[in-house]
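[agent] plan:
  1. take the single chain provided in the ticket
  2. run structure prediction with default settings
  3. attach structure tokens to the ticket
  4. add a short note for the reviewer (M.T.)
[agent] executing step 1
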Amino acid sequence: MKKLLNTLYITSEDSYLSLDGENVVVLDKEKEVGRVPLHNLEGIVSFGYRGTSPALMGVCAERSISLCYLTPNGRFLARITGKVKGNVVLRKKQHAISINNSESLEVAKNCIIGKVHNARWVLERATRDHSMQIDVERVKKASIMLKDSMAMIQESVSKEQLRGYEGEAASVYFGVFNELILQQKKDFVFHGRNKRPPVDNVNAMLSFIYTLVTNNVASALETVGLDPYVGVLHTERPGRVSLALDLVEELRAVLADRFVLSLINKKIVSSKDFLKKENNAVLMKDDVRKRILAEWQNKKKEMLTHPYLKEKIEWGMVPYVQAMLLARYLRGDIDAYPPFLWK
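[agent] step 2 finished; step 3 output follows
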């Protein structure tokens, strides 16, 4: 159980939520494990299947406290709200910003600054922790280029220009990504990002984990009442979660890429876990996919201090915090959207 801003997150899949006077009571196997006053809450998010008492549902509906249900893995199931008021205003503001080039550009720039900042610090960590195993001069040079690119990103005057700077920064980062592979270097060689289909073991895992992160971010946006399909940078098309893809940019290097590197460097995966098709597409075998999913769930439980909130949270909660912060910006509660800046 974790309260962040005005939202209560119930992360145990065995928890049942009930009402006691003016309090939400969290029960785990009939034992009370926590309680939070209702007047402090705008929303409750539950990652479990056991459910909520009708009494609590009724009070939440009366007071416009949203109840959101996700699977233990973070897949969005449903959101229950009372009389519609806040979400309509929030979504109208979201849609207005999406078609306002200057306002949407400011949010997009923050997302990409977060992406490049985090990519740079992944490289900086590598030079600090593995200086004897990597080409430090080459990686440091890339880090400096990423630092310089952030100033240009901040000065972007159009989304086309922003996409150009983002593409250049990604090329610099992935240009030295192979240096971060410290073990099994013959079996996990990275020559650059490729997809649809991935043609090497590293890209196969990157694509898989990027999909998992995107699904988590899309669910997070649903929980706060935002439309994951209406973005600020990624172009909109049917079935594309454009806003989720915008926010994923901040988490690619720091969450997904570092996780894939750990799978390789800790030898959790090996070359035997992959198949190469006749068209050169590389696929993961079912067994390794299950193993990676188990490791991913463990990764999401690791703790960090959120750089903006200054509170300790699980990695799996980061998408939900960022979605809340974006919603707060759209409602006018904060002056700008604060990207996730890891260090």
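[agent] step 4 note for reviewer: The radius of gyration is 21 Å.
[agent] ticket updated
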